[in-house]
Amino acid sequence: MIDIRGFVEQLDLADGQKHRGKCPSCHRGNTFTATNKMGKLLWNCYANSCNLSGSTRINMTVEDIRKRMDKQFNIDTEKAFEGLNVGKVTQFVLPESVVKGAKQEVLDEYCNRYGIDSYELSLHYDVKEDRIVFPMFFENKMIDAIGRAV
Questions:
Q1: Residues 6+ away with beta carbon under 8 Å from 89
Q2: Which domain does 145 fall in, by range?
Q3: Do 61 and 102 reside in the same domain of the chain?
Q4: Pairing assessment for the beta strands 32-37 and 18-21 based on DSSP bridges
Q5: What is the CATH number of the domain that holds 50?
Q6: Residue 117 within any structural domain of the chain
Q7: Structural domain tally of the chain?
Q8: What is the pLDDT of residue 144?
Q9: What pLDDT sits at residue 21?
Q10: pTM score above 0.85
């Protein structure tokens, strides 16, 4: 009896690669397929009289994972930003409830806990939402802000 798992692993299929050929069980030509889908080897014989099928997990190499990630997240940036005014940065205005210097003791405690400098980061406090506000700057202009509840 043939070791089907060993046979399929010897095909050394890369992530996303497929193989079609002679079935190792019934020996019919072009009826056997094997595929590597994200580290899962799948195999099947399409001959009516053969019931060979199965799957197993295999380790993905770092290179396979990188290729998968690049393929999955690779976007055409020119098309993605087409029609948008990307180069223009507008001034961001904080809501009135976000003030600098309010609840300084809360800011200081938070900064001491995480070893950050509230003045260097220009931290603010949102009195309405009771959270610390981290402004985001681009070319010395505030473009956005994000809050962290305390």
A1: 138, 139, 141, 143
A2: 98-149
A3: no
A4: antiparallel
A5: 2.20.25
A6: yes
A7: 2
A8: 85
A9: 96
A10: no
Q: What is the pLDDT of residue 53?
A: 94
**Residues of the chain below pLDDT 50:** none
Q: Tokens for 26?
A: 């019934």
Residue 81 structure tokens? 């930003």
Q: Rounded to whole angstroms, what are the CA distances from 55 to 45, 62, 68, 87?
A: 12, 22, 20, 50
Q: CA 41, CA 53: separation in Å to the nearest integer?
A: 11
- pLDDT value at position 83? 60
Nearest to 131 by CA among 120, 143, 116, 146: 146
> Which pLDDT does position 116 carry in this prediction?
85
**Strands, sheet with 131-138, edge to edge from the N-terminal-most edge strand:** 98-99, 124-126, 131-138, 141-149
pLDDT for position 19: 96
- Same domain as 102, residue 60: no
Give the Cα separation of 46 and 31 in Å (integer): 5
pLDDT of residue 78: 55
Q: How many helices (H) and strands (E) does the chain have?
A: 4, 8
